[in-house]
Design a protein that fits this description.
The chain is of the alpha+beta class. It contains 24 helices and 16 strands. It folds into 3 domains: about 120 residues, Immunoglobulin-like, CATH 2.60.40; about 170 residues, OmpA-like domain (60s Ribosomal Protein L30, Chain: A), CATH 3.30.1330.60; about 180 residues, Tetratricopeptide repeat domain (Serine Threonine Protein Phosphatase 5, Tetratricopeptide repeat, Alpha Horseshoe).
């Protein structure tokens, strides 16, 4: 009897000591994770964990460290820990009352890897009670990662093409001035033999002789008198200067058998020209003169006020007024470039005879397939190695083909020619995004303004950074997979549906995004048909679909597609 009593006492004592040395287990009910399931955003998986320590759990001498751990096939990711302690512990942990317990919030991020689609989130514990280490079993508190944002890498981005400056028709003008002596309207030999007059006559002959390459628009004659002296006399002078100048041009046209009209006009007093010359001059009192012009509109009053400025009037009479006694002759014409057929023909005969703009135009606009475009750009480099555009456009082709190594090489060559070229920086940003380097991509996009794909690339960058609202704004004018992805991630399902329907060349990802959209909008029929189309186009999507939490509610519906 005594022996039995002794054994009972020992057992009771051991049980008591054991209970004092333990903290007890925690369960999933003690945790709430937001979001559930987790979601990949900007290449990371953020999680907010709200925890509860029950009343009478945290012993007064206990220290508990909680660590979130995301476990997946082949590995695990460890998040940011938090430490909590009892009321009699001296330390830096968050104090938890033994009597009433306590709540806490933890925020953590995991670097996303594809295997995390099928994963579980655990709370892992390290605990001490006094100096003794105690064991608390880890607890499963969440599951899986929605990784729809990671489809960005499969959406494709339109690489930037450097434009050509080819113009079939280029407007040109040839201008010359004939100056007259004060009070005179006769043509002087010295004026007619000037280089500008001779060049103008030469252009008229070229236009007449090269009618397939040149086209005359019109010929203008504007004659002027300087704003000094009698207005009536000036008007007569200006008209006579108009007549003699236009007659001279008509004689030149007759010599080359060219039929063309001459448009004429005259200005009695050229106050506009006077003001312009005064503004450009170094006259000491030019500001005063300009003020006079603004204060007085009457020509005689203006002239009198200026004449009263005797200190500068001599300079005006000698340096300004003679320049206004003139006739202005202008030939407006067009230079007509090669036709498309002529450019292609010349390329075949001797490409060196084509300008850089013609070669780039051929590559950009005339060639329909990538192989031909590549040949034209390589030819452009051969003849014009110091123009960055052909290097860039070869990089653009390489990006669209998925050859990032070749793209990088061509972009480096383009960069060496023109480091500030917006198209080159835009395409280098695409490569940075493909390598997951959003910081570098953002820096490069700061030098890419003006490139033809700027908004599309910027939209993709903002998706990669998790800025879905901004991404949707960037991509508002495009109908691409990435534009639809931004709308889905931003929960704008109506817009996403319109965008996906408008994509000109839909692919497997287009169908997959349609399936995701259908799942989010509970359209079972569209989900199954689009997922079937996606897998038929790209069999690698079968495995993804099998693990994709977007379809978690529809496992039975899609079972035959992903088995």
């Amino acid at each position: 009897m005594k022996k039995s009593l002794l054994l009972a006492l020992v057992a009771t004592s051991a049980a008591f000591m054991s209970s004092c040395s333990k903290l007890g287990d925690l369960s999933a009910d003690n945790f709430k994770v937001n979001p559930t399931p987790l979601e990949a955003i900007g290449g990371e998986v953020p999680a907010t964990i709200n925890g509860i320590f029950p009343e009478k759990y945290m012993k007064k001498k206990a220290v508990v460290t909680v660590t979130p751990v995301l476990k997946y096939d082949g590995g695990e990711a460890v998040g940011k820990s938090a430490t909590f302690q009892g009321e009699k512990v001296e330390g830096n942990g968050t104090e938890i009352s033994y009597k009433v317990g306590g709540t806490y919030t933890m925020k953590t991020n995991f670097k996303y890897v594809p295997a995390m689609m099928n994963s579980d989130l655990y709370a892992r514990f390290e605990a001490k009670l006094g100096k003794k280490t105690v064991s608390i079993p880890e607890v499963k508190i969440g599951y899986g990662v929605v990784s729809t944002s990671e489809l960005l890498g499969r959406c494709g981005i339109t690489a930037s093409t450097a434009p050509d400056a080819f113009q079939r028709v280029i407007e040109q003008k040839q201008e010359a001035n004939i100056k007259f002596l004060i009070g005179q309207a006769n043509l002087r030999t010295s004026e007619l033999s000037s280089l500008s007059i001779q060049d103008l006559v030469k252009i008229l002959k070229e236009i007449n002789d090269m009618q397939e390459e040149r086209a005359l628009q019109n010929i203008e004659v504007s004659a002027y008198a300087s704003p000094d002296g009698s207005f009536n006399l000036n008007e007569q002078l200006a008209e006579k200067r108009q007549d003699v100048s236009s007659n001279y041009l008509k004689k030149q046209l007759k010599k080359i058998n060219m039929d063309a009209d001459v448009d004429t006009k005259y200005t009695a007093e050229d106050w506009e020209g006077f003001q312009e010359l005064i503004s450009k001059s170094n006259l000491q009192d030019k500001d005063v003169i300009l003020r006079v012009l603004s204060m007085y509109q009457d020509p005689e009053e203006r002239e009198q006020q200026i004449r009263n400025m005797s200190s500068v009037f001599t300079e005006i009479a000698d340096g300004i007024l003679p320049e206004l006694r003139r006739a202005r002759l202008i030939v407006n014409y067009e230079v007509i470039g090669r036709s498309d057929d002529q450019i292609i023909e010349q390329y075949g005969l001797d490409a060196s005879k084509l300008s850089v703009e013609e070669l780039l135009y051929g590559g950009n606009m005339l060639m329909e397939n990538a192989t031909s475009r590549k040949q034209w750009y390589e030819t452009t480099i051969k003849h014009y190695p110091n123009d960055y555009r052909a290097y860039n456009n070869l990089a653009q082709l390489a990006i669209m083909e998925g050859n990032t190594t070749a793209a990088q090489n061509w972009l480096q060559k383009a960069k060496s020619v023109n480091s500030k070229a917006p198209e080159t920086n835009a395409n280098m940003a695409i490569l940075a995004l493909k390598h997951g380097d959003t910081d570098k991509a953002e820096t490069l996009m700061g030098q890419a303004s003006g490139s033809d794909s700027f908004n599309e690339i910027l939209g993709n960058l903002n998706i990669a950074k998790g800025n879905y609202t901004q991404a949707q704004m960037n991509l508002a004018q495009t109908q691409t997979n990435s534009a639809a992805l931004a709308q889905i991630l931003n929960k704008d399902y109506a817009s996403a549906k319109k965008t996906l329907s408008a994509i000109k060349t839909p692919d497997a990802i287009t169908s997959y995004l349609k399936a995701v959209l259908a799942a989010r909008t509970s359209d079972t029929g569209a989900l199954k048909s689009n997922l079937k189309a996606a897998i038929a186009s790209d069999s690698s999507l079968k495995e993804r679909a099998a693990n994709d939490l977007e379809f978690a509610k529809y496992k039975s519906t899609i079972a035959d597609l992903v088995k």
